[in-house]
Amino acid sequence: MDPFSSSFLSSFSLSNLPLTLPPSTSSVLRISAVRIEEKPPTSTSTTTRTRTPQPSRRQIPSPPYPTKTKPISTNPPPTPKPPPSLAVTIFNAFDDIINTFIDPPTRPSVDPKHVLADNFAPVVDELPPTKCTVVSGVLPPCLDGAYIRNGPNPQFLPRGPYHLFDGDGMLHVIRISDGGATLCSRYVKTYKFTIEEKTGSPVLPNVFSGFNGLRASAARGALSAVRTLTGMFDPSNGIGLANTSLAFFGDSLYALGESDLPYAVKVTADGDVVTLGRRDFDGKLFMSMTAHPKVDYETGETFAFRYGPVPPFLTYFRFDSEGRKEADVPVFSMTTPSFLHDFAITRKYAVFAEIQLGMNPMEMIFGSGSPVGANSSKIPRLGVIPRYAKDESEIRWFEVPGFNIIHAINAWDEDGGDTVVMVAPNILSVEHTLERMDLIHASVERVRIDLKTGFVSRHPVASRNLDFAVINPKCAGRKNRYVYAAIGDPMPKISGVVKLDVSMSESDRCDCTVATRIFGPGCYGGEPFFVAKEPNNPEAEEDDGYLVTYVHNENTAESSFLVMGAKSPNLETVAVVKLPRRVPYGFHGLFVTETNLKKL
């Protein structure tokens, strides 16, 4: 499920900060379940970023990886960093007191020993472009380009509470050209990341795990304010992690996290990743943007929104085909702050889901929970607004009891625009979204909204626990037939992929699964991504292409890049690339063609 870095804390100038375990607390919090690997041995110096060694970091020796893979780029060894300043040392001491005595990580959902176990553990360093080995099959020519997967990778091991969504964004890029591949893993160099790297320690607390009750919120909030007032951190430069997803529009590539503005990045010819900077689109984009913008491949336009804890709780906007931002459309008819992670578009409308998850300040202050929580008395609604609306006057809200979505798969118009159809995984146990993801069950549904009568009908598409679903990107906003979804076993681990034929649901079939691929014993992957075999062929069939994802074998501690045939009966393997280093589990990915890479 998406790390969703909440805009709630944007308004408080607080950020998702991974934390480092100092010597003074190493005896209190033992992160024994975290496995961190060193970079593969090489015969030359590399451009890998290094930091002052943290006394608390237990670097467990990595499994044997191929020793013949060599980084492509090299650089002189970096100069060792000076010791932390007196101010940093004092602030870190106060952090230790809060994390040890006021708010220790007592719940499994924020306990680093649990959250960072197995392949959720961060990799200790960046990886420069490193050659990979194709161990099975052949990489198809249409994969020339780059597959990029975003996800959390905390720069410093937590010394206190840590949630899965709290890590710094790291991009894992496999660059493919003429049948060969290189892997590169780089942090998104956000303002928060660079300040903390320079400081040598975290500056602000984690968003999803740092505000558990009144005492913890007051203590961490006060310490954060003092750090800001002393000039250690300027929140106006951004507080986000850019750890959730990626988007390509306006001939630019962006790393996204919904608590901040987009960060422009590029992939170089040799497969390296460079952060170009935070983008506000000529001052027209304020505070934050969803991590799930929708690109219309026919018009070239991009549609997006932001949400927050103060009115307007929802603001809708779009970018033209050149990437220029248009005017905001504030939506005041959403009267409570709801958790809006994703949405959908059609040719005529944008569709928003107001679900039972929302901002929960009372629980944060008087209880011991997250600032985002479930409200069981709230009735979920779907809001339909004209796609090119100038204001919210034409938005219509439809109550859909029990329909809670985190991700939307697709939507389209029917009956000449009088009907809107939406396909999305419905979270049947939404109260567990943040605290017990292993208890979540997401059932894909097709929802039909009759705009004339106001009648809403729902029909199941699959009963299996499915999320992180994708379609052929060219079908966004158009009626599509096929969906490719990840199997939760349980979430957040993904044991395989299914192919759904949504058209079967129109004949009252309750399970529209037409193909299933299980990765194998001890093997888990991530969100699949569909790459068309002939992207420029308008006559190509919708499913004529490939599914790609990273897969990790927990038995051998090795990761691979898997290519599957989307049209094949069982999503058979087309190619497997053995990666030179472990790729941790993450969130959302994107494939960028060679042609689009050159535009960067």
Automatic annotation (TrEMBL):
Residues 1-27, 41-60 have a biased composition (Low complexity). Pfam families: RPE65 (PF03055). Fe cation binds at H292, H341, H407, H588. One of its GO terms (biological process) is carotene catabolic process. GO terms for molecular function: carotenoid dioxygenase activity; metal ion binding. Residues 74-84 have a biased composition (Pro residues). Its cofactor is Fe(2+). InterPro entries: Carotenoid_Oase. Residues 1-84 are annotated as: Disordered. Keywords: Dioxygenase, Iron, Metal-binding, Oxidoreductase. Binds 1 Fe(2+) ion per subunit. One of its GO terms (cellular component) is chloroplast stroma. PANTHER family: BETA-CAROTENE DIOXYGENASE, CAROTENOID CLEAVAGE DIOXYGENASE 4, CHLOROPLASTIC-RELATED. Belongs to the carotenoid oxygenase family. This is Carotenoid cleavage deoxigenase 4. It comes from Rhododendron mucronatum var. ripense. The gene is RriCCD4.
